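Re-running Large ribosomal subunit protein uL18 to confirm reproducibility after the cluster update. Everything else is unchanged from the original entry.
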Amino acid sequence: MAYLKEEDEDRYKRQFSKFITAGLNADNLVGTYQKAHSNIRADPSPSAKKAAKPSKRHTGKKLTYDERKQAVADKKALLLQLKEQQ
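Result of re-run:
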């Protein structure tokens, strides 16, 4: 992290933008991880999380046989029209 900051400032800002907004840098990063690990050791029970809602699945309406045939005929007509224009 420190090496990249010295070598290429723009790349450092692009790669570590989330760290910068959180106020983390190469000097206080190790301390932050040590604090997080000590907090986990003090209370290792996982925090309660909300169950994810299953997303609604939307499927299209089934076409009848006649509608499918009409769609194919429309596509053929469009292709013929495009071919004639060329």
